[in-house]
Write a structure and sequence with these properties.
Length: 328
């Protein structure tokens, strides 16, 4: 990766060529999902002996959830154990809701009507007001393949209650096992909710994925294994990732909502997209991204025919006004 100019340099930062940091590129491979719906079952608390069916809604990624290591869910939804997890990932208005197991069928019935207000809000990433707001983030870990050990380690690190200065002890995050998250099989993989930030392809070390999850939760940069934010399509994911990489080089931490895509258009000077990305401190960046086809073949999703893997060349052009970065 090229080293960018100093942050007060009004010129553009050099072009960043696709990197070969790992055997399999993972950049911009997050499944596109404005909202997520996680449903426990068929053996989870939501439906003992049966499997409720979640409706298919545009922009909503549905995953099956289960307790990690056979234990009970680590959270409650007001009146009982969690049976359904809902999250909206749009920066600046992300949210996370938990639905009690005995309310799952009623909530799914409301979401089954695509013309209903609840379904329309969920499909747009807006809070449908179902269940109770969660006081902490959630981590969904795909436990297919090597993800099981990583999930157990995440429960150990994040699931243990922490004593707060005022109030009861609570875990730092809820951790649940999940089926495939979407996109290519880049295990172990996980998604942080409500941000929709997806990690994957970090290899067999059971500590690698938990380390990356903790870094994102603490606003620290993750340069390896970051697949992108599911809110965006691949080109916008690549642009957001490019800005996060440059911020890391100049020593700027970035919480999930500190970096956000604020529009894009097709380039008129070649293939790819021109994407506007903003930092919460006021700086803006125009990112030119271009897909580059490689000789590596990979299935875009489990069971699909292998196709050439795309990586992304990017050029980050900051605004010409010197400024400061602030997180939060």
């Amino acid at each position: 990766m090229s080293t960018p100019a100093a942050p007060d340099d009004p010129g553009s930062w050099p072009e960043t060529e696709p990197e070969a940091e790992a055997e399999e590129p993972v950049e911009a491979t997050a499944p596109h999902a404005v909202s997520w719906l996680g449903l426990f079952g068929p053996d989870g608390p939501a439906a003992p002996g049966s499997a409720p069916v979640a409706p298919e809604l545009p922009g909503v990624r549905v995953v099956r959830l289960h307790p990690v290591d056979g234990g009970a869910p680590s959270a409650s939804a007001g009146d009982g154990p969690v049976g359904l997890v809902l999250a909206g990932t749009v920066p600046g208005r992300s949210w996370l809701r938990l639905v009690a197991a005995d309310q799952v069928v009623a909530v799914l019935d409301r979401l089954a009507d695509p013309a209903g207000e609840a379904a329309r809000r969920l499909a747009a990433g807006r809070d449908p007001g179902l269940g109770t707001l969660s006081p902490r983030p959630a981590v969904l870990v795909c436990t297919d393949g090597p993800g099981g050990d990583a999930a157990v380690e995440l429960v150990r690190r994040l699931g243990a209650p922490r004593r707060r200065l005022l109030g009861r002890a609570e875990p730092r995050a809820d951790v649940w096992g999940a089926g495939p998250l979407g996109g290519p099989a880049l295990e172990p993989s996980a998604v942080l909710l409500p941000s929709g930030m997806v990690l994957g392809g970090l290899g067999p070390d059971p500590a690698a994925l938990p380390d990356a999850v903790q870094a994102l939760l603490e606003g620290r940069p993750v340069l390896t294994g970051y697949r992108g934010r599911s809110t965006y399509l691949p080109a916008e994911q690549a642009a957001e990732t490019a800005v996060r990489r440059h911020l890391a080089v100049v020593g700027v931490s970035a919480w999930p909502d500190d970096v956000r895509v604020d529009g894009g258009e097709d380039r008129d000077d070649g293939p790819g997209r021109r994407v506007l990305v903003r930092h919460s401190g006021g700086r803006t960046f125009t990112v030119l991204v271009e897909p580059v086809e490689t000789e590596l073949l990979r299935a875009a999703s489990p069971g699909a025919e292998p196709t050439p893997v795309l990586v992304w060349a990017s050029e980050v052009v900051p605004d010409g006004v010197p400024g400061f970065y602030f997180s939060g």
